[in-house]
Amino acid sequence: MSPAADENLALSLRILTEEIAKMGGLVEKMVQASLSALIRHHIPRAKRVVADDAQVDEAQRRVEALAESILAEHKLHDKAIREVVSALRIASDLERIGDHAKNCAKRVIALEGFSAPGQVAEGLEHMADMALEQLNTVLDAYTSQDRYAALEVRNRDDEVDAIYDSLFRQLLAAMSQGPDTVAQGVHLLFFAKNFERIGDHVTNIAEAIHYVVTGEQPSETRLRGDRTALLTPPELINTPSA
Asked: Which domains does the chain have, with CATH numbers?
């Protein structure tokens, strides 16, 4: 490949990285706003999050178009191929995170006039803050191609899962108190589950960064802290608050 071709490829890859960073920044703001809307009972903010999801979809289309252009116009070496493939994977995960933030905002709108119980509200905020911290870290790791920071995020995914497991139990216990609590509890359960899934997508992004840098997937088994799918019906009914 000629020096000019190398330079053009490097420029195209840099633009691709910048587009991912912009998309990540937009998604990060949506996730933060959905949490803020819940804590502050701010319905207009929740509605803005729902509307902003269209921008995330458009950002993903730009990333895909740019990736297709790079594949069509350049002769790629191994590292460049990994960068393009990983950019597509990361854009897909960011789009899903945007969807989860939108879903959280819809739950806030549905909960208008209701407040989460104090301990549950604290747990939701703690889990969301942790997911946001990991999203911020993994986006920085993508820009700097810091696989060690990415692996640290990946290895902490079980912490978000563990908080979700605790919230799941608390909410089931609260919902068992009477039918008036069920609708609110269901919406809060979905809110919590969306943030647990955000953590999973952040972990996927961390693995994609490791692949870009090394050409390999992480060898360690991903830790899992969510045990809710393993609860039997009797356990669901008699779930103690944690």
From this structure: 3-237 (1.20.58.220)
- Contacts (Cβ under 8 Å, ≥6 apart) of 94: 20, 23, 24, 27, 56, 59, 60, 201, 205
Residue 88 CA to residue 97 CA, distance in Å, equals 14
Written as six digits, the tokens of 157 are 């995914």
φ, ψ at 178 (rounded to 5°): 165, 160
**For residues 170 and 162, what is the distance between their CA atoms, to the nearest angstrom?**
13
User: Could you report the per-residue pLDDT of 33-92, keeping only the tens digit for each?
Assistant: 999 999 888 999 999 999 999 999 999 999 999 999 999 998 888 899 999 999 999 999
Give the separation between CA 48 and CA 134, rounded to whole angstroms: 23
**Which amino acid, residue 199?**
G
Give the total residue count for the chain.
242
Taking alpha carbons only, the member of 188, 86, 97, 221 closest to residue 143 is 86
Question: What's the number of CA atoms in the CB half-sphere (13 Å) around residue 16?
Answer: 27
Residue position matching structure tokens 């068992």: 176
Residue 52, both tokens: 């902003």
Q: Which residue has the tokens 């563990």?
A: 162
Distance (Å, whole) CA 101 – CA 88: 20
pLDDT per position as a tens digit, 100-147: 999 999 999 998 888 777 788 888 899 999 999 999 999 999 999 999
Is 224 strand, coil or helix?
coil
